[in-house]
């Protein structure tokens, strides 16, 4: 497989063979529970067979609608938050060939709105699209999330102002629940192009549905190859035990480390194309595992940049961290260091070497240093940057978190904790239905 895991730098020093042997049966039980759909949250396991049983009609519809958007618009604004945008952003930034701005080399640029409540951010988007043709893809499973609802409200009224009701309806694409919510109703009434987020797939596991695939197709990427990568990984992993299955090995090793007091996992990359991928991973792991007073806290660093900031803490600070480094074996483009015309520049030892080679040494140097400093380092290797590998990587992490949550005896498919702030916010905004909470919060002041 194009995604593999290397435990050389944790086994022995941080994980004893007996620990591995003793947790093995728990990992296999957790995996069986997932596969047999007998564990908590099993009504949300639609993602598990999704890539292998992909609905070809749905895929064709995604491609058709993406072509229509590409024909009519310079910009697609994806409106969504959490699982309703992180996967698309992760994929677009991972596959992006231009180092400076996400999506900027594409015919139709993909921007994201509704990802927070900043007026400045929204105004920047409004200014940017002023003289451009654009479409909106509003993505929300619940249809009630406040950030995308506000962004949609503002952007839709601008769209209608610019194009009129009739043409605006050709430029709005809704991705939401099959039946419930006002957005579904609006999509039906106005005949918008629309996609369904299946009931049995939670937001953070939805990247391989139209949620992630439509924006990726609009950005010009081969979504069939993404599904192919995920399906090959999903298919092969079905028959594999802990010894062969990279997701199970990952779930196993991080749980052994967690039990030994390594409570924070730092996902480290050595390529900015993986920066947004880490954001997708943080939501997937944070919402799936952080509950019932338990769970590994998922954090991320972007090396070598962060070696000059957080690197100090990782090397030398409090010892409760373990690192998971993603290594791209063939990163593609490789610049060579030419001969210097200034003899005392101090770079002579690098002449003739390439940037990828130097980056590789930076990674190995960091890995050895961190292991010596008491940080266990798991290495996940991917062959290259491609749609196929992206599909594999998405599925690798989804499968691992399902198993990992079960090993730690939590329901990895719910997220009750995110409601607390929402209730307070609604009460403070005096939303009807929250009167009692409003009174309670006002008494705090
Ligand atoms: O797609 P929705 O319903 O707008 O939700 C967006 C995100 O908000 C959350 O519910 C958390 O508030 C996530 O689980 C989800 O991905």
From TrEMBL:
Its EC number is 5.3.1.9. PROSITE patterns: P_GLUCOSE_ISOMERASE_1, P_GLUCOSE_ISOMERASE_2, P_GLUCOSE_ISOMERASE_3. Transmembrane segments: none annotated. The gene is pgi. This is Glucose-6-phosphate isomerase. The keyword Isomerase applies. The active site is at 287 (proton donor), 422. It comes from the Bacteria.
């Amino acid at each position: 497989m194009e995604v593999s895991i290397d435990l050389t730098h944790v086994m022995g020093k941080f994980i004893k063979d007996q620990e591995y042997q003793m947790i093995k049966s728990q990992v296999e039980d957790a995996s069986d529970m997932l596969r047999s759909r007998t564990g908590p949250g099993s009504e949300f396991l639609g993602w598990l067979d999704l890539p292998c049983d992909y609905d070809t009609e749905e895929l064709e519809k995604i491609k058709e609608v993406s072509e229509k958007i590409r024909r009519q618009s310079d910009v697609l604004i994806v409106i969504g938050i959490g699982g309703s945008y992180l996967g698309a952003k992760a994929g677009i930034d991972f596959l992006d060939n231009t180092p400076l701005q996400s999506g900027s080399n594409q015919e139709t640029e993909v921007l994201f709105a509704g990802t927070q409540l900043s007026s400045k951010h929204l105004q920047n988007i409004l200014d940017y699209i002023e003289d451009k043709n654009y479409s909106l893809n509003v993505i929300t499973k619940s249809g009630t999330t406040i950030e995308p609802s506000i962004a949609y409200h503002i952007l839709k009224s601008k769209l209608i102002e610019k194009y009129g009701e009739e043409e605006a309806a050709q430029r709005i694409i809704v991705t939401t629940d099959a039946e419930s919510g006002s957005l579904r109703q609006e999509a039906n009434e106005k005949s918008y192009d629309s996609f369904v987020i299946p009931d049995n797939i939670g937001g953070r596991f939805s990247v391989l549905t139209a949620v992630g695939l439509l924006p990726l197709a609009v950005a010009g990427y081969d979504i069939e190859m993404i599904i192919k990568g995920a399906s090959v990984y999903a298919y092969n992993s079905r028959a594999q035990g802990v010894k062969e299955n990279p997701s199970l090995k990952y779930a196993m090793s991080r749980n052994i480390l967690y039990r030994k007091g390594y409570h924070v996992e730092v996902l480290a990359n050595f390529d900015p194309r993986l920066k947004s991928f880490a954001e997708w991973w943080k939501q997937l792991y944070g919402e799936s595992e952080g509950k019932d007073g338990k769970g590994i806290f998922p954090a991320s660093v972007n090396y070598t940049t962060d070696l000059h900031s957080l690197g100090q803490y990782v090397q030398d600070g409090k010892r409760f961290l373990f690192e998971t480094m993603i290594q791209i074996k063939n990163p593609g483009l490789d610049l060579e260091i030419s001969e210097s015309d200034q003899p005392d520049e101090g770079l002579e030892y690098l002449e003739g070497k390439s940037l990828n080679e130097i980056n590789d040494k930076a990674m190995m140097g960091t890995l050895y240093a961190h292991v010596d400093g008491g940080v266990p380092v798991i290495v996940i290797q991917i062959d290259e940057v491609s749609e196929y590998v992206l599909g594999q990587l998405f599925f690798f992490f989804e499968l691992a978190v399902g198993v990992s949550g079960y090993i730690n005896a939590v329901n990895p498919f719910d997220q009750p904790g995110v409601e607390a702030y929402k209730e307070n916010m609604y009460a403070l905004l005096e939303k009807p239905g929250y009167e009692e909470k409003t009174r309670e919060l006002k008494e705090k002041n």
